């Protein structure tokens, strides 16, 4: 709860100054969704200063040691390449990787959510299935890519399936934790108004589980994007993709292009994070 | 098992004006299966609650008060005996007649205050009576907080919101499960006065569970004292204090005399198995 003593709260007429996200729920998933965003001007400037420091220090060291560009990408050249070539070659790779990721996440997370919702209704099923899910979480699904290539050919599907297998179990274990949080008092409340089992599911269990589901999506999508890029590095489709570009530029020694591709992957990862951060803020902020 | 044969006095109505039994508790018995063995929560409790009466069920923790209230609300079944509401056995929730007010407000944290109040209407697929809700929010001092979330409100405000949520359903029976137990003494007094004011206008039949003796006397027409393990009815007290009740009454001899008497009943009840 907030710092304001409960007794005083009745006397405080307005709450324009909401108790901000400095409070955490019982489960501290705040590390993921509630990064204490740089708010003050000081924090922002220090943040930028650190970035600039690393950026120019790296540039300085590489210039000073006369490291050739085919050994290590120089920051300034990388940014230049990123800005100049983005619209031509990289956009296509980004769209391939992006669609593999989105399709895989959609399939995997839907299956994970449905399984979590069903299994938490039956403790026996949950106990029997849980070890397999754990095995799926811990096994690197990348290893399946060559096998799936042989089975399914050179289209996008092998990578989509791998992404689904990597992200689905992550969504599932977090959603399971969420669905297991049964607040009996809230269920009793709904039942006292004559709620059906289905209504209790939609109006009580889902909202209660939502914060954990968002965490599941966040972790699952991070796993998914890693798996998508990694799978392309192992065995890309005939469409290419960012992972294939990385392997290609590395083999050519075109380090500015290589650096630019890494930059795209990094930005993609941050964007995914921001999307789920905002979703969490909109739909699950009550727990903060 | 001598206690099984002992008879339990069923309480008589305080005044003639409320002569029809709204709720009849008939030999209510509840045994929970716990890991350590069966737990006797209620043992043959019988009592009547009359139309428009305010009854408090008083007892120390573990005496089965909440169990009895949940059974009355149809949220769980009894092991033995039955409960009649308007002469019909209670076999499940009766959302059209009964409003339940829970411990610690029990608001849904992901909904704002107004959405919480509208929640029962959503469940019942009913039209929301805007005017009634506005009036209730006004009466409970919650106007202006419609869009606040529960965590932004004090405990007292949260419990007031939960009372509005129940009253907006226009129930004829209110079952209240230690609603003010988590509040501090001052807020509790305020809430008690507010509840009596609201009740004086709408006059529902109220069953109010509490472990606070002075709260029970202050609110009730009749106080039923339960004793723990197994929970049984020790005594019923009529509270002849006039209404409207004021905080000043709690310092008067009559009130203090009642407190002493009821405290005695609670204590002797916990020491011995039965005190009639």
Walk me through what this model shows:
The complex is a heterodimer of chains A (288) and B (276). By secondary structure, chain A is mostly helical. Chain A has a single domain (81-287), classed as Orthogonal Bundle (MetI-like fold), CATH 1.10.3720. Helix content of chain A is 74%, strand content 0%. Chain A has 11 helices and no strands. In chain A, helix 4 packs antiparallel against helix 10 and helix 6 packs across helix 7. Residues 1-31 of chain A have low confidence and may be disordered. Chain B has a 6-stranded mixed beta sheet with strand order 6-7-8-3-9-10, with helices on both faces. Chain B has a 4-stranded antiparallel beta sheet with strand order 2-1-4-5, covered by helices on one side. The longest helix of chain B has 19 residues, at 253-271. Mean pLDDT of chain B is 86; it is low at 1-18. The relative contact order of chain B is 0.18. Chain B is 32% helix and 25% strand. Chain B has 7 helices and 10 strands. The A-B interface holds A 1-2, 6-7, 9-10, 15, 18-19, 185-186, 188-195, 199, 203-204, 207, 210, 284, 286-287 and B 70, 73-75, 93, 95, 98-100, 102-104, 106, 108-110, 119-120, 122-124, 148-157, 169, 184, 186-187.
């Amino acid at each position: 709860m907030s710092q304001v003593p409960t007794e005083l709260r009745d006397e405080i007429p307005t709450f324009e100054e909401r108790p901000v996200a400095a409070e955490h729920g019982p489960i501290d998933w705040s590390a993921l969704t509630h990064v204490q965003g740089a708010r003050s001007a000081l924090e922002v400037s220090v943040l930028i200063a650190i970035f600039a420091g690393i950026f120019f220090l790296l540039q300085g060291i590489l210039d000073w040691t006369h490291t050739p560009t085919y050994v290590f990408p120089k920051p300034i050249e990388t940014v230049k390449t990123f800005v100049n070539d983005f619209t031509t070659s990289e956009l296509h790779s980004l769209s391939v990787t992006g669609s593999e990721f989105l399709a895989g996440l959609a399939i995997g997370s839907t299956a994970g959510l449905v399984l979590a919702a069903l299994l938490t209704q039956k403790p026996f099923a949950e106990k029997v299935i849980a070890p397999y899910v754990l095995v799926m979480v811990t096994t690197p699904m990348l290893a399946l890519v060559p096998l799936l290539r042989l089975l399914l050919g050179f289209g996008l599907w092998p990578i989509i399936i791998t992404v689904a297998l990597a992200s689905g179990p992550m969504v599932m274990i977090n959603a399971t934790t969420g669905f297991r949080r049964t607040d009996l008092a809230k269920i009793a409340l709904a039942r006292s108004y004559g709620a059906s089992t289905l209504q209790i599911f939609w109006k009580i269990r889902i909202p209660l589980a939502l914060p954990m589901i968002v965490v599941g999506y966040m972790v699952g999508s991070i796993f998914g994007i890693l798996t998508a890029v990694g799978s392309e590095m192992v065995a890309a489709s005939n469409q290419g993709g960012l992972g294939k570009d990385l392997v290609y530029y590395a083999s050519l020694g075109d380090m500015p292009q290589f650096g630019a591709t890494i930059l795209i992957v990094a930005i993609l990862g941050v964007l995914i994070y921001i999307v789920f951060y905002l979703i969490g803020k909109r739909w699950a902020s009550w727990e903060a | 098992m001598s206690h099984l044969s002992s008879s339990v006095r069923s309480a008589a109505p305080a005044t003639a004006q409320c002569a029809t039994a709204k709720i009849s508790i008939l030999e209510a018995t509840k045994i929970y299966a716990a890991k350590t063995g069966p737990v006797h929560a209620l043992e043959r409790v019988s009592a009547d609650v009359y139309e428009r009466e305010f009854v408090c069920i008083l007892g120390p923790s573990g005496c089965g008060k909440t169990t009895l209230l949940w059974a009355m609300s149809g949220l769980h079944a009894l092991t033995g005996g039955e409960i009649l509401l308007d002469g019909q056995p209670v076999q499940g929730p009766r959302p059209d007649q009964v409003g339940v007010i829970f411990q610690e407000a029990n608001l849904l944290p992901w909904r704002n205050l107004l959405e919480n109040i509208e929640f029962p209407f959503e469940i019942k697929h009913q039209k929301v009576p805007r005017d009634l809700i506005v009036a209730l929010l006004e009466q409970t001092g919650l106007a202006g907080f419609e869009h606040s979330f529960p965590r932004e409100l004090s405990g007292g405000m949260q419990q007031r919101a939960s009372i509005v949520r129940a009253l907006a359903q226009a129930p004829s029976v209110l079952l209240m499960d230690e609603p003010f137990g988590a509040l501090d003494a001052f807020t509790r007094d305020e809430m008690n006065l507010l509840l009596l004011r609201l009740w004086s206008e709408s006059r529902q039949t109220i069953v109010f569970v509490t472990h606070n003796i002075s709260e029970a006397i202050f609110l009730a027409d009749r106080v039923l004292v339960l004793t723990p393990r197994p929970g049984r009815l020790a005594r019923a007290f009529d509270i002849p204090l006039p209404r409207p009740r004021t905080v000043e009454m709690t310092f008067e001899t009559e009130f203090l005399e009642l407190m002493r008497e009821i405290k005695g009943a609670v204590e002797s009840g916990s020491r011995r198995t039965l005190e009639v």
